[in-house]
Amino acid sequence: MGAEPTLDWTLQRPASQFADKVATVDRGTGERRTWTEVADRVHGLASGLLALNIDVGDRIGVLMLNSSRHFELWFGIPAAGMVMNDLNYRLAREELAFICNDSQVRVLFVDDTYLDTGKALLDSVDSLQTLVWTGPGDAAPEGCIAYETLVSTEPVELPKQESDGLAAIFYTGGTTGLPKGAMLTHRNLTANAIHGIATMGMTHRDAYLHAGPQFHLADGSMTYALTWVGGTHVFIPMFEPKATVAALSEERCTLSLLVPTMLGMVIASGALEGADLTPLRALMYGASPMPAEVQRQVAAGFGCEMVQLYGMTEASPIATAMDGEVHRRGMAGEEPYASRLRSAGAPVPGVKCEVRREDGTIADVGEPGEIYIQGPNIMAGYWNRPEETAHALVDGWYRSGDVAWQDADGYLYVVDRAKDMIISGGENVYTSEVENAVYLHPSVAEAAVFGIPHEKFGEAVHAEVVLKPGASLAADELIAHCRDHIAGYKVPRSVKVRPSDEPLPKSGAGKILKRSLREPHWEGHDRKIG
Q1: pLDDT digit string (tens) for 61-83?
Q2: CA 527 to CA 209: how far, in whole Å?
Q3: Which of 49, 287, 335, 486 minimizes the number of CB atoms within 10 Å of its CB?
Q4: CB-neighbour burial class of residue 349 (10 A; exposed 0-12, middle 13-18, buried 19+)
């Protein structure tokens, strides 16, 4: 049998076939590099990592805004035989410390924005030994190693990569209240790259704008796909409507991925007026459905096709897609395409999806059940979570926890996202994580957190609490308390405080009935109450 592809394959091809072509354009620093330059820098970076006092297989953290150096780390860390842990910079320090401790991060790469956070983690995470500053030049801040010093290391022979070797750990919210790390192998990530290339028809002529955060697999996974075909990567430090449109226009980008909240912000900003987006052939979106009217505004404003992607970290992340033809013909009112606009698309080439009943049998067409996913893109399991791994991976299938029904053509219609999860502005918020923070307040006896409609973010985090006898607590006080313990996007935007003699509704088994709490908020809104 022939060798299976590993992540080094994705960089070797453009370095060979498109050596002098522009590979990366960093709008934050003004740096532009060819594929030869990127490949040489990645080899030096990996060699520099191997020269540090760490071992093959150790976990390496990344805490950075978007940049071409961030991009190089996605290749350099696995090239050294180590495991990348790209951290969500929106998390609170307490949450970042938990993740770094849980995965035993040994080295952390930080930019200027997160230098202070990195120093704090160096003091609080026992396993963390080295801080690498990723600014330009060799003059690193005190207590740090300069990234460019690692890059300039004399190249050495790198460890052989194996397709089933662990390449990265991406932490996702846990239903137990603690984040859990999805372990992704070289096989998982290269398979997803192939699926993405096939779905989007990517070629070396494409230029992709990284506007969403690179730590998020929705954007980050495009790193390997577009690299493999020799396209060009364009980076802005973080999403901002006018900067996004300027980059799309001035760099003549052909592709990008933006969540519906971002697209709505671009439309509302007026940044599209007068912008030349002629080269833009498709916008990918995901994380949450897009209302039909917003789809029309985006299609008209950007003048390109739209492709919806549905997936999750555990699937590396793409599972299904709804292509430009469905959007185009559906918005014209043509059936069955118009009905499919409410779907999450159909499985991409290389992935299988089934909807199953609680007993594991396959549901009938139109019958709601849990989405099961199978393919070479499915994770190896959760880091140090054998019980949760055993629950999620069953006979070669991944149990998504998402409820959907499937039509006769295989299109999935998501009825309710994973149990007790809120999708706010494209970010997943597990209510158990928020509830854990709420319960840390000494005045709270009972708490329920759920999503309520929000015009800008789709859903907003809402909490209802019951006070302990004799206690008092203002809503803004509880919100401030939560901000000390969890990331800002998880903090409740609204709070209803109940006295001790007004308990939350419960089932006969004593379980809080979130459905009855949610239902009044969602009356008249296009959402299934579950």
Answers
A1: 999 999 999 999 999 999 999 99
A2: 31
A3: 335
A4: exposed
